[in-house]
Amino acid sequence: MEPSHVLLPDERTLHGSWDRDRPPVLTVDPGTTVRFGTLDSGWWTGPHDPTDPGARRRHPLHDPAHGHALTGPVAVRGAEAGQVLSVRVDDVVPGAFGATYVGMRSTPLNERLGVTAAPTVHAWDLDPVAGVGRNQAGHTVALRPFLGVMGVPPAEPGQHSTIPPYWHGGNIDCRELVAGATLYLPVTVPGALFSIGDGHAAQGDGEVSGTAIECPMDRVDLTLDVLPDLFGAPLRTPVARTPAGWVTMGVADDLDEAMAVALDAMLDVMAALHGISRSDALGLASVVVDLRVTQVVNQVVGVHAVLPWGALR
Q1: CA of 307: how far to CAs of 143, 193, 256, 273, in Å?
Q2: Which of 45, 110, 274, 287 sits at a 20 to 30 Å CA gap from 20?
Q3: Tens-digit pLDDT profile for residues 27-50
Q4: What is the pLDDT of residue 116?
Q5: Which range, of 1-5, 67-71, 149-153, averages the lowest pLDDT?
Q6: For residue 131, which of 147, 152, 145 has the smallest C-alpha distance?
Q7: How far apart are CA 243 and CA 293, in angstroms?
Q8: How high does pLDDT run on average in the chain?
């Protein structure tokens, strides 16, 4: 479906925090396809030169207090708190450059791994047509682009950081949210006020250095819709229908709790899909569901549960 609207990252659309009182830059009817463009997460406007860090420039709207460079927000008519925002990812096309950073900030993980030297940067040339990226050392990886941030603001007033993911989305960093996926988010505020950013050309589960291949997105086509609920019940955490299968997500202060949240949501999905009890769903999940670490670097951690297509019939 061709997009009905185009939102590019500019003075009108760019922001670096979640805020329920930020006016929407666009209001659409349910079922509308919107084409977005994004900066990379750090507000950079050009490729990184590892030999001359000062050569790279940030967007004029960047402020050191800002988090990710987000494009939006988009309001969806009729969306009310307690409903579900459906975000169908129709297309994701990265820009021509990206970067991965190591040791940019001191973390317990970096210290545990002995990565405490001067920051390291992998500067990537990206070829979206061929689907490959190459860094300055000649290493080549396959691209699998997705958005690290898709979400709606907290219901509480004020400005909120984009760094941690929330139960209603945000910096989820789930690598399964590629083209062909549909993400379901709890609606927290009237209109939903949906924003995106943090383009990743490729990322492993965990995002262990703190960054993926951070890149701008030249084109992201998303179809936005509103549902009264998901499988007849309110949604309590992000859920997605992806090319890999059904995915449920949990975020928390530790991996055990994040795992429990993701698995709890997966039992709801399995019970609804197959007409079984939660007890039976747990037994079957032990056979067919995979638990994966989404990310461990964003103040709170994430785990996602995956029910692959065809694993349970």
Answers
A1: 23, 30, 19, 11
A2: 45
A3: 999 999 999 999 999 999 888 876
A4: 65
A5: 1-5
A6: 145
A7: 18
A8: 94
DSSP string covering 196-253: EEEEES---TB-TTS--SB--EEEEEEEEEEES-BTTB---S-EEEETTEEEEEEEES
193 to 5, 15, 160, 169, 263: CA distances (angstroms): 16, 13, 14, 12, 28
Task: Map out the domains of the chain as residue ranges.
Answer: 5-308
| Interstrand relation of 132-135 and 120-127 (parallel, antiparallel or unpaired) | antiparallel
DSSP one-letter string for 263-284: HHHHHHHHHHHHT--HHHHHHH
Shortest CA distance to 183 belongs to which of 148, 218, 132? 148
| Tokens, residue 133 | 């990226």
**Higher confidence at residue 241 or residue 4?**
241
CA distances for 244 relative to 38, 93, 182, 312, angstroms: 25, 19, 12, 14
**Residues whose CB falls within 8 Å of the CB of residue 286, separated by 6 or more in sequence, listed in order:** none
Residue ranges in the chain assigned as alpha helix (H): 108-113, 255-274, 278-288
Indicate the CATH number for domain 5-308: 2.60.120.580
What span, in angstroms and rounded, lies between the C-alpha atoms of 194 and 185? 10
CA distance 232 to 228: 8
256 DSSP assignment: H
What is the tens place of the pLDDT at every residue in 93-109?
Answer: 999 999 998 876 667 77
